[in-house]
Amino acid sequence: MSEEIELLEQTLDALFARHCGPAERTAAAQGLLPERLWARLVETGLTDLGAPDSGAGLPELVAVAMAVGRAAAPVPLAEASGLASWLLGATGLDPADGLLGCATTHPDDDLRLVGGEPAAPVVRGVLTRVPWGAAAGHVVALARSDRGPVVVLLPAATQVERGANLADEPRDTLRYADVTAVAAAPAPVDAAAVLRRGALLRAAATAGAAGRVLELALAYAGAREQFGRPIATFQAVQHHLVVMAEEVAAVDLAVRVAALAGPDTEALAVAAAKVAAGTAAAEVTRRGHQVFGAIGATIEHPLHHYSKRLWSWQDEFGTDRQWSGVIGRAAVGAGADALWPTVSAPLDPAPEAALR
Amino acid sequence: MSTRFRPTTLTGHELELREQVRRFVAEEFPAGEYLPGLGINAEASPEFSRKLARQGWLGMVVPAEYGGPGRTAVERFVVVEELLVAGAPISAHWVGDRQTAPALLKFGSEEQKRRFLPAIIGGEAWFCLGMSEPGSGSDLASVRTSAVRTDGGWVLNGQKIWTSGAHYADFVVTLCRTAPLDGVKHAGLSQLIVDLRSPGIEVRPIMMLNGFHHFNEVFFTDVFVPDEMVLGAVGDGWHQVTSELAYERSGPDRFLTSFPLLRIFLALRARRAVGAEAEHRIGRLVARYWVLRQMSLSVARSLDAGEVPAVEAALVKDMGTTFEQQVVDVVRELADAEQRPGGDLFDRLLAEATITTPTFTLRGGTNEVLRQVAAKSLLRGAGRAA
Ligand SMILES: Cc1cc2nc3c(=O)[nH]c(=O)nc-3n(C[C@H](O)[C@H](O)[C@H](O)COP(=O)(O)OP(=O)(O)OC[C@H]3O[C@@H](n4cnc5c(N)ncnc54)[C@H](O)[C@@H]3O)c2cc1C
Question: Per its UniProt record, what Pfam families does this chain match (chain A) (predicted)?
């Protein structure tokens, strides 16, 4: 890992350690952006990290998402840096003030251009379950047009249907009835690329959260005593811990590898990371809760901040079943002889960071 | 994170080696004609192993001073994974290449290295592992086979079991007691390199479920073992076998065993791979292959960096071998038919895979015991962090 990334992780861990208390969580659960924390993130440039001029690439953005997961941070930092500022930046459009939301290419999205000028088109349609959509000052989205997909920068929606995931993270559905976009440009990437990136960021956050549950479980198992000894001495408990460690290691590595993958391997690497995230989420929540016993099933205990996120993130930006379907369709289509070359494909070009 | 798996990939030079291996494998095993072996359950073919030797692909990690090519763990990984994917008959050289060569390099005397390493590299000597006994499986330190001092060496008595390849191997690396049990059972153990042609040795076959003669019982009755055949220091046996395990644990042989089955399923039962459900299930397998291979490769890379990724290797073995079994389950369910052991290539391979699956999570130490070892060190790590 490069020193810059290590520094980034330390900065984020420290920020979140200071600013993810009950007050922030309560605000976030009501759809209110925790102001102080967000202001600190904006100040440090972390919310714009995906912009082309920041010099950060996927490995950095993945590190950010992992840190969000590790802290169960109640802020849309991974979306703002990894998706919104990236997508907007790729078009050369100027960033907007306030929280910049980003649509997720949800299967129920339907947004199209219905008129106006090319630089300020009129759009109509719906963006489904946008992270922090109601709190966003502006929203970046892909819209359909006769000349192909267009990136539009939209004002805050006036028609909002508030929603949330299991962890009370806002997921708001936004309707635009002939609204003039603030800015627009031909999309430099397609919806599949946005979805892939979102999936990778969710997998990264999953790796962070699942890793934290493992740490908590190891510590708890060492401290909690029953039958006169720490429960960590029971083999059945040890097996839970080991399987958790395995799945955490798998998703963690899968995500880091995917962040380095080139055009030939990106599709498989990201899909595999999201599938690994699904498996990790399932094993780590089930086994993690088993290790904690009843205390873990209460609001009192911090475990739920992680497990509820893991349960939600499994299915965001494509369920793991959809992603395994993508991999399987490609593998079956390519046939038996392509199977091993696919599985063993090198990251290309060989990233220097991967060879140290 | 309590474990360290760093992303890595093959370099241009490693990819060139791989192309060489792929060309070799394609010639040796023309697709559609060859019934692939399943990992280290594959047959032993001294002839094939010697062909590999001529390519320079046995004992690859042995440095030039002992006649080896001085290749890296990753280069060995590259060769081994291609052979496993093809289902090549690798058993003859397997133990010598994977286990004995690194053990000799690490613990062997100068004389042992000069004698055995060139023989491993040249495909001239086959080794097997005499660890398990009828009374000592998972509890390996409880072995009772014992060696007693005599003039110029040791007199060995006892019995080993499940000794893979003892019927064709030249040497059995034998874990035995060289000092009487004195409270601490991990002390007083040594490994002897025993010539299987020595007087007093009897090898009796044991048949596996597939009728295959893979492993054996080995009886030692007053077998003389000269001093120079003690591996490393007398009494160092437990340390040796536990540190060898890091090499043994996490290689491609721990997740690719049933790969040929999935490949042949796609080739010969393509119509069973149609539809969303089949694609989803196959996609899960492919995703897991991708990730496990990255993990296993990462361990090889860190061995080359001089690290000892013992927990990482244990996790990969547990996950990998469990997964090898899942692959067989998924393929069988997708094939959705009665098993016909006498059918086509796919039927035969599925039958073979089905009845060898139990061995995947046993050999080299059972997964239950492996998890226990891994858990202890994860908990120790967490204790340190706290
Ligand atoms: C195909 C094959 C090839 C082999 N080749 C060799 C070889 O070449 N040389 C060699 O020396 N050995 C070889 N073995 C033996 C192998 O190492 C042993 O099978 C293995 O160590 C387990 O020992 P066991 O079979 O006696 O089972 P046991 O140790 O009796 O275990 C039986 C069951 O009890 C469980 N168990 C035991 N102890 C514990 C514990 N503390 N906690 C939880 N569960 C426990 C085990 O996990 C297992 O499920 C081979 C085995 C196979 C299947």
Answer: Acyl-CoA_dh_1 (PF00441)
